[in-house]
Design goal:
The complex is a heterotrimer of chains A (about 180), B (about 240) and C (about 425). Chain B is of the alpha/beta class and about 240 residues long. Chain B has a 5-stranded mixed beta sheet with strand order 1-2-5-4-3. Chain B has a two-stranded parallel sheet with strand order 6-7. The longest helix of chain C has 29 residues. Classes of the chains: A alpha+beta (about 180), B alpha/beta (about 240), C alpha+beta (about 425).
Chain lengths: ~180, ~240, ~425
């Protein structure tokens, strides 16, 4: 149960120079024929036909951050500003405001500059309200730099759509 | 916290009374040249005057019981305003927090603490012995008005690039260095970016390009007038 | 139109360059006393997998002088770290060695833990080793594969990249991202192993092992590959040590310096693995050492999956690790902890600390100076690529131009880590 130091074995150069070429051809043809006739047996597809097919992403996958929209159409965020603090790249901007509703604080402005966001997930980890979560959305390209600024209305996603991620989060960040 | 006249930092606490086995060997060999020594978090560290750095390094490398044959790292620390190390927490944090209340972005702005009397920089060497597998850190203080120290690249050629980097980032000159150019930045760069008084958002002057093809007319820039994203069409 | 005669093309472009090497009589034709030709190799060269510029002075095909210039990917990592909290710098360490990010995360977090003087739970250490060894596999596969591709062997590149994707699938399942993992936290990891990870990882690793064997069959005995790798890029073991070279490059020179063995950390003392060393200190030995390390890393991951104990994965200390979300939603104390940790970064004792671990390219260390606040006063990276690249210029002098490509490829210079 320990580390041993071993010398790597350098194979002696062969005198039959045609042999390695044949071996290489054999390996490459094995891959070729397995892919060609793989529909009969044994092919393990590696690529998918994007965008018609998509990869099955694991539940841990971190896409762009979105805001959770509750059933009444409002965001769950209470504009406490922790995600703004935790963000290493300062890509989140929040201006809080107050209403007379039951949850009296809400973000009047909630902007995420997706050109700066690096999908690290620290906002999600810092959020005390489960209001900002990492979605599975990764297609955020835009034609201009202004298009990478996502407003609050663009970021809101209904809670039902985010249920797998919310379930994963509760398990991931739970402690005894 | 008062804004002016910060309390003077207390002198460093005395080191642990019992030197480790390695430290005892080092003190026996180069004890006369060592100003002070510490064992902090399990890392042995000696402080050496900058005139003696080459002599100490040569002794450390050539003594058979020490045999520090690998120079892992050369860097510097800028103790601007905290010249005697950090025994008390500095005030930078409180001032930054006060600035943050007005504008969130300003937490990245640098608040310059008051200057102290001790030498501003410390050049830090990390050495490793590949035969005995022990490590040592050497610190040597360098004042602000004469930021020079002797080079150790004649002892370890690997220190060549590391000293070039330290010159690039901190502006500390290494006497006798064979090739002291900037290593990361361009030669026209103004200032040394890892100094504490270099603001992170500081902008450099634009340099004229003088290479081949400089006289050719620039291609005019074209604004893209294609379709916008949906999310930008919405009213704010 | 630029003047297309040879004189202009060979003129130095910037003032940062050294004066040209002394004009030497050509070896081929002693009567021809021509100055050496200056060749700009890089910064963006199709045969180098990294942004580096090598200014070569050539006498025919022979290299008279070589000047390696780095810094094309300098982003000011250390300056950036000084303005962020300790936890905010973890995503930036992903971008150092971007092909083995978990090792960089682990090095940074373990340095901070050494500063704090805490130890992590055993299950956390196992997860760190699993993630780190998977990263090491991915990095070595990329290095060997792209080096082979630069020597015109495209088929093993595809096999190794496929194997790397299989490894990245496991990292993805582990922490939710393939490259920029952000997987390790100060005092813990981002999440526990997902359900069914052992079977998932074993299946993927078996599939990857077959692809590595295929690449080995194609490459190792290949005449062209061997003749370009054997004997090229030789650096003597004394020079390697004096230049601070660590990692597979040093071990290929016969020096068995591996921090996993010499200064064991995490759970490496409990694992059974070999440390391959070479004896010729040339590119072919570096290739063999890397290939063997991929196999040993696979062994280590499988052993870890066997031995991993149950238990918590985070330090149970509200001053260090962020509290659990289930408590934050319901209890006041944890909510206050969460706010304090996020906005103040935590409590860190003043002092300085150095910690290094064995990353893909060698000793990957952090030197932190803390002033007692939540932000590091100085965060210094001891990057292995930087030191590994420094003897390259001297090693190339007197060699052929075609030796630059395999020598640079087997250095495995990672721009993000070398240029910080």
């Amino acid at each position: 149960m320990a580390a041993r130091v071993v010398k790597v074995v350098r194979p002696a150069p062969t005198t039959k120079q045609w042999l390695p070429i044949l071996i290489g051809l054999g390996v490459a043809s094995a891959h070729f024929f397995r892919n060609l006739f793989g529909f009969i047996r044994g092919r393990q597809d590696f690529t998918v036909n994007f965008p018609e097919q998509r990869f099955v992403q694991p539940p841990a996958m971190r896409g762009m951050p979105v805001l959770v929209q509750m059933a009444n159409g409002k965001e769950r965020c209470v504009a406490c500003g922790l995600c703004e603090w935790a963000c290493p790249t300062s890509c989140i901007t929040i201006f809080p405001a107050e209403t007379a509703a039951e949850v009296e604080r809400f973000p009047e402005v909630f902007d995420i500059d997706m050109a700066r966001c690096m999908f690290c997930g620290l906002c999600e980890e810092a959020c005390p309200e489960e209001a900002i979560v990492m979605s599975r959305q990764v297609e955020i390209s835009s034609y201009s730099r202004r298009g990478s600024l996502w407003r609050k209305q663009d970021l809101l996603v209904p809670e039902a759509e985010l249920k797998p991620r919310l379930d994963y989060l509760r398990a991931q960040y739970a402690r005894k | 916290m008062p804004e002016s006249n910060p309390p003077a930092p207390a002198p460093p606490t005395p080191p642990t009374p019992e030197p480790s086995k390695l430290m005892a060997a080092i003190l026996e060999r180069v004890g006369a040249l060592v100003e002070q020594w510490h064992a902090e978090h399990g890392d042995d560290r000696i402080h050496v005057a900058r005139e003696n750095i080459v002599a100490v390094c040569r002794l450390l490398r050539d003594s058979p019981e020490l045999a520090f044959d690998m120079c892992l790292d050369v860097t510097a620390v800028d103790y601007l305003g905290n010249p005697d190390g950090f025994i008390t927490p500095s005030q930078v944090w409180d001032e930054n927090r006060a600035a943050w209340r007005h504008l969130p972005q300003s937490r990245h702005r640098l608040v310059q603490p008051p200057r102290g009397p001790s030498p501003r920089f410390a050049v830090v060497y990390h050495l490793l012995s590949t035969s005995h597998l022990h490590r040592i850190r050497i610190k040597s203080r360098v004042p602000e008005d004469d930021p020079t120290i002797d080079t150790v690249s004649s002892l370890w050629p690997g220190a060549n690039w590391l000293e070039r980097e330290t010159w690039d980032m901190y502006g500390i000159r290494f006497n006798g260095h064979p090739d002291l150019r900037r290593i990361y930045l361009y030669e026209e760069f103004v200032g040394h970016p890892l100094r504490k008084d270099y603001d992170k958002q500081h902008e450099q002057p634009i340099q004229e390009y003088v290479g081949p093809g400089a006289k050719e007319p620039r291609r005019p820039q074209v604004e893209y007038a294609g379709p916008e994203r949906k999310n930008t069409q919405r009213p704010d | 139109m630029p003047d297309r005669n040879a004189k202009t093309l060979n003129d130095p472009i910037d003032s940062a360059m050294r004066p040209r090497a002394e004009a030497s009589p050509s070896q081929l034709d002693p009567g021809l006393d021509a100055p050496p030709m200056r060749l700009q190799f890089g910064p963006s060269h199709p045969a180098t997998h990294g942004t580096v510029r090598i200014v070569l002075d050539l006498d025919g095909e022979q290299i008279v002088d070589a000047d390696v210039q780095i810094g094309y990917l300098h982003r000011g990592f250390e300056k950036e770290c000084e303005t962020g909290y300790y936890y905010q710098n973890i995503p930036y360490t992903d971008r150092l060695n971007y092909s083995s990010a978990i090792l960089c995360n682990t090095a940074y977090c373990m340095t901070v833990e050494k500063l704090l003087g805490i130890t992590t739970p055993e299950r956390c250490d196992f997860i760190r080793v699993i993630g780190g060894e998977l990263s090491r596999m991915a990095d070595h596969m990329l290095c060997v594969g792209s080096s082979a591709m630069e020597l015109a062997a495209f088929t093993p590149f595809l096999y190794l990249l496929e194997a790397r994707e299989l490894v990245l699938d496991q990292i993805d399942a582990l922490c939710g991202a393939r490259i920029t993992t952000n997987a390790i936290r100060i005092g813990g990891v981002i999440s526990d192993l997902p359900a069914g990870f052992r079977e998932f990882a074993t299946a993927k690793l078996d599939r990857a092992a077959k692809l590595i064997d295929d690449a080995h069959k194609i490459l190792t005995d290949n005449i062209v590959f061997r003749r370009r790798m054997e004997g090229t890029g030789y650096i003597s073991p004394q020079d390697l040590i004096a230049h601070g070279v660590t990692g597979p490059m040093l071990r290929a020179g016969g020096v068995a310096l591996d921090l996993r063995r010499t200064q064991p950390y995490l759970v490496y003392p409990q694992l059974d693995f070999d440390i391959p060393i070479g004896e010729h200190s040339d590119n072919f030995d570096r290739y063999l050492v890397r290939l063997e390390e991929i196999r040993q890393s696979r062994r280590m991951v499988l052993q870890c999956l066997e031995k991993i104990p149950a238990g918590p994965v985070n330090v149970d200390d509200p001053r260090i690790r962020w509290p659990g979300k289930n408590h934050v939603f319901g209890r006041m104390e944890e909510l206050i902890d969460q706010f304090k940790l996020v906005t103040e970064g935590g409590l860190f004792p003043p002092g300085e600390v150095y910690f290094a671990l064995e990353a893909t390219n060698g000793e990957f260390g952090f030197y932190l100076v803390s002033d007692g606040t939540g932000k590091p006063y100085k965060c210094r990276l001891r990057s292995p690529s930087f030191s590994n690249l420094s003897p390259l210029g001297r090693a190339l002098i007197g060699r052929q131009l075609a030796d630059v490509v395999p020598s640079f490829g087997m250095t495995n210079m990672i721009g993000g880590e070398c240029d910080r």
